[in-house]
Amino acid sequence: MTDLLITNARPMGGMKADILIKDGRITAIGEKLAADGVPVEDAAGRIAIPGLVDAHTHLDKSLLGYPWYVNTVGPLLIDKIDNERNVKREYGLDAHVQSMRQSLQSVGYGTTLIRTHVDIDTDQALVALEGVMETRRQLVGVVEIEIVAFPQSGLMRRPGTAELLDKAMAMGADLVGGLDPCGMDRDPKGHLDTIFAIAEKHGKGIDIHLHEGGELGAFSMEMIFERIRATGMQGKVAVSHAFCLGLPDWNVSQALIDTCAELDVPIFTTAPPSREVPSLKRLHAAGVRFGAGVDGFRDTWGPYGNGDMLERAMLLGMKNNLRRDDELAMALDVCTTGGALAMDRHAHALKVGGRGDIVLVEGESVGEAIVTHQPRKLVVTAGNIVARDGASLRARP
Amino acid sequence: MTDLLITNARPMGGMKADILIKDGRITAIGEKLAADGVPVEDAAGRIAIPGLVDAHTHLDKSLLGYPWYVNTVGPLLIDKIDNERNVKREYGLDAHVQSMRQSLQSVGYGTTLIRTHVDIDTDQALVALEGVMETRRQLVGVVEIEIVAFPQSGLMRRPGTAELLDKAMAMGADLVGGLDPCGMDRDPKGHLDTIFAIAEKHGKGIDIHLHEGGELGAFSMEMIFERIRATGMQGKVAVSHAFCLGLPDWNVSQALIDTCAELDVPIFTTAPPSREVPSLKRLHAAGVRFGAGVDGFRDTWGPYGNGDMLERAMLLGMKNNLRRDDELAMALDVCTTGGALAMDRHAHALKVGGRGDIVLVEGESVGEAIVTHQPRKLVVTAGNIVARDGASLRARP
């Protein structure tokens, strides 16, 4: 079933309309559309929004389904990375099972498109990638999953990792990942040259984690910019987190943002309350593509989160001090159509010709839907009903 | 009914125990306590925590019960303040009804103690105060409400306000409020001298809103310190928000924090993701009393929030980058016993001799209870059952 007629919906909180999906695409939005044998769902006046887009997460490592993880980890980044590898081994964590659990939980929340960073390291090699790829196969038609081959434990500091990334790309990962070329890998030139070379070899893009703050992050950004120019990879290299774009020195951060616009570098945020972050309005004004994600959650890194991108839109709004309804609509766009655009998906929109990914949400307005993020009534992926009343139709393992 | 035996609870997520409340006080915590005719509630292994404490809110001005408020307000503080007075007039907002609605919603979330700042201005004079005082009378035994007489629209800039504050204190407000002596009132000396004089006259404390950031906030803090020393009001003057304590310059902010400790100035936060805030761990290390609140919500200022202090503990944790379970326990303390201590309530604790305010929450651990903040199973105020399954027993108007 990839045809569906949704009646009595309020697209983006506006006037009531029917939405007709045929062959997975929206073919009409209007009053009293004819069903013509297509299955019908009555939205009963609920708001219709595009499928939510989780543009930055880690499907392979949540501890969903396990007892509560009592976190006693140390304060440093390396403490968390080493602890995670140990816990994974101890638990025998199965990336396929965990990614199924998280993906289906996210589907229940209305997410229809996910970009996930999957750990590639010399401990577990490509096992997590295989697991997430199996999840991707099983969930075709339910949720789209884009995979970044992610050197979580470092690249230059762990010989053999680059070769694994290369293999990961050959196996079918969509993008090459990276991580804090200075702060983590202590060799920004080596790190960036390596990931750009792998990306070029496979004709794929890059999405690099950059937690480095302040001037250090700015330095790494500049080194990324230099390589985009040198390789002609404009539009193909994204930066996740990019805390340095929130640098208080306006001149420094604005120069970085302007260069992101010039070189078409999409930015992905998780809107963490505890850090300086790229400003939604500022990136919007500069024309930088911008998406958001839930990041990892309920894992060894931290306890927060549940996969809900509507709640993330709220956090994004709170972080950016968005109070007006028109501002809240911008936050929702980042978590739907805008986030998809930042992932080069141009048809993820609630319009004729757009992909038939629709979520029915509760509230008088888009603002109320974001703020209260009540259970989603209906989730539709390319015309398929995949979740009802907050839960995916397919049971979690 | 002020006697109650709660069986099979896990106090603070620990081992199972019964909790006996007599005459509104906890008289025993232990295994297999005898009921002796006291009503019994089976916690069925749920976690028991102390009543949640909302130490900073605005009961008189939420728009709960009204249609969604479409916010189109301007960017300045004064835009929001002027807009609010206009909307209040237009809606004919009834502070008694609104404060009943919010208080009972909060009770459903497990809040048993509230400090509310009530608007006093030359437009509405003491009407809001009368309304909230009526709510306080009606909710005796359900939730304790402490009232701050709050000059939301300014003090020196609106002649007649000081006289109204004086009357408010005579009527029974508990504390004198204040608001941004520089940023809002443009006369820090006049503002602070006035509120300290009213507080001294009535023998009451002060709780002043200080949104002023950076060095401006630091300046206002110093002027507050000078007056505490001059009047001998150590321990009687609290500062809400106190964003300046989050100043990045460690020397400046640490000097302020140390003086808060020296003069026993309690700090109240709402943990806004968009601002620099006082650090939980840093205040804790310095020995500064620290509470948290939900602030105003669903009002003309902004759309976020619902009154849930367990969700606020999560936001406090996210803002302070707390990830370990022992750190999450600190966040919960700020939202319960610690917040009450900052309000000079020394018996608000889950221990023998403590007030019989108990909330049963869901989760394997306190961390999970905070992170998932599921509906509260049971809320008990001084031995009275006041809410079940997320809703107060008393219906909202």
TrEMBL record, chains A, B:
Domain of life: Bacteria
Gene3D superfamilies: Metal-dependent hydrolases, Urease, subunit C, domain 1
Name of a matching Pfam family: Amidohydro_3
Coiled coil: none
Positions of transmembrane segments: none
Classification via InterPro entries: Amidohydro_3, Metal-dep_hydrolase_composite, Metal_Hydrolase, Metallo-hydrolase_Enzymes
Domain spans labelled Amidohydrolase: 110-386
Entries under PANTHER family matching the protein: BLL3847 PROTEIN, CYTOSINE DEAMINASE
Protein name per UniProt: Cytosine deaminase
Organism, as annotated: Rhizobium nepotum 39/7
Lineage: Bacteria, Pseudomonadati, Pseudomonadota, Alphaproteobacteria, Hyphomicrobiales
